[in-house]
Design goal:
This protein has a single domain, classed as NAD(P)-binding Rossmann-like Domain (Rossmann fold, 3-Layer(aba) Sandwich), CATH 3.40.50.720. It starts with a strand and ends in a 32-residue tail after the last helix. It contains 10 helices and 9 strands. Helix content is 44%, strand content 15%. It is an alpha/beta fold and 285 residues long. A 7-stranded parallel sheet has the order 3-2-1-4-5-6-9, sandwiched between helices. It has a two-stranded parallel sheet with strand order 7-8.
Amino acid sequence: MAFVAVITGASSGIGEAAARRLAREPDARLVLVARREDRLRALASELGGATVVAVDLLQDGAPERVREAVQREHGELHMLVNNAGGSWRGPFGDVGWENVERHMKLNFEAPVRLTEALLPLLRATAAAGGGGRRASIVNVASTAGRVSRPGSGSYSASKFALAGWSDSLYAEERPRGVHVGLVLPGFVKTEGFPAKELLASPVTRRIVSKPEVVAEAIVEAGPGGKAERYVPRGYWLAAVARILAPALVRRATGGGALSTTTPATEAQSAPGPDDSSTPTAPAAD
Ligand SMILES: NC(=O)c1ccc[n+]([C@@H]2O[C@H](COP(=O)([O-])OP(=O)(O)OC[C@H]3O[C@@H](n4cnc5c(N)ncnc54)[C@H](OP(=O)(O)O)[C@@H]3O)[C@@H](O)[C@H]2O)c1
C-alpha cells in the first residue's frame, strides 16, 4: 500500500530534506507544498514524481487546495508535516504587534488550518488500518518554542503556541489512531536561517545542525511514533532548565553566556506578499 505524505515548506531547508528522506519510504507518494513552484517541480522530478501544490499558506482557501489535491491524486493520507515557517527578528518595542501577528499567521494559524482540513483524511486512513502504516502529523516547532530570547519574542510566541496545541492534539487524536509528533530543532543552517555568525566561530559552529538530521527526527516523530524530538537530542535540557532554573536561563539568554551562542542570523529570505513592508530585523531560529 502507498505511503502518502504532505510536506509544507518543501521548496527549501528542512522541508526539502524531509521530502528527500520520506521519498525513501517504501511506495512513498509525496505532496509538496510551498509558494515557489519551480523549486517544487524540480524536486518532484528529481524524486521521480510527486504532487506539487504551489500555494501561499496564508491565503484563504489554501488548506482546501491542498486537501483537494490529496483527494484527487491519492484518495488517502498517511502523514502531514507542518514545516513551513519563518522568523523576523526585532524587539517588541520596535516591531510591535505587526511582527507578532505575521509570526502567528505563518507559524501557528497556517498549520492549524491545514491540519483542520486534512485531519478527516488522516483519521479515515487510520480507521482503515493504513495498510499497516501509522497515520501521523508532525509539527515542526523549535527549541525557541520552549525557551525565549530577546529579539525573538514573536517567533517564540508562535512556536510556544504550536507546541502547546500539539501536546493537546496528541492526546485527543490518540484514541482515533492519528499520532501527533513534535520536532524542536535548535540551530539548523538553511536559506531562511543561515546561522552565519554561529558558523563563523569554531566554538559555536558545532551547535549548528543540518536539515538532514531534522529530516530523520521528522520520520521518528511521524511514522516512528515518537511524541517529541529535540534536534540535537540534548536540547531537551534547555527546556528542563527553563522550568527548574529559570533565573539561570534568564541570565544566559539575556546577555550572559548563552547570548554569545545565539546571535541573530539573517531574515527569513523567502519573499512574502508583504515582505517589502517588513519592519523587522534579521531572524534567528
Ligand atoms: N533552520 C533553523 O535554524 C530552524 C530551527 C528551528 C525551527 N525551524 C523551523 O523549521 C521550519 C523550516 O525552516 P527552514 O529552516 O527549513 O527555513 P527555510 O529554508 O526558509 O524554509 C521555509 C519554508 O517555508 C515555506 N514557506 C514560507 N512561507 C510560506 C507561505 N506563506 N506559504 C507556503 N510556504 C511558505 C518556504 O517556501 P516558499 O518560500 O517557496 O513558499 C520554505 O520552503 C520552520 O517552521 C522553522 O521555524 C528552523
